[in-house]
Amino acid sequence: MRTVLIVEDEWAIADWLEVLLSENAFNVLVAGNGREALDILHRDTPDLVLTDFMMPFVDGAGLIAAMGQEERLRLIPVVVMTSLLEHVVRDRAGRFRAYLRKPFREADLMKIIGEIFPDDTVNA
After folding, report:
1. Judging by DSSP bridges, how do beta strands 98-101 and 48-52 pair with one another?
2. What are the two backbone dihedrals, phi and then psi, of residue 119, each rounded to the nearest 5 degrees?
3. Distance CA 17, CA 79 (A)
4. pLDDT in tens, 70-91
């Protein structure tokens, strides 16, 4: 079973993602901001990080930068979820595997996860 870390400060979105991914046979960890996510990442190594970009304390760019400084975390794929345009996010964060423009559909997320883990069965 793969593990996904959801990093989202809007609890309604975090809850929706947690239910969706749990129903699709993922183990789910949830953090409310980048600082909480880094605490989790020091204890666990998820297979995927699904992160909001604009958050308090440590934002998505800060989280991605911190992950890039640790060899163990550098290889974890990151999907950024935000209402910002992709080029703005790329300018600030650089390294991430995929981008989802909020609001997004369940099928769009599951398609990206299926592309990241092509050997897994992912229900869209």
Report:
1. unpaired
2. -85, -5
3. 13
4. 999 999 999 999 875 565 556 6
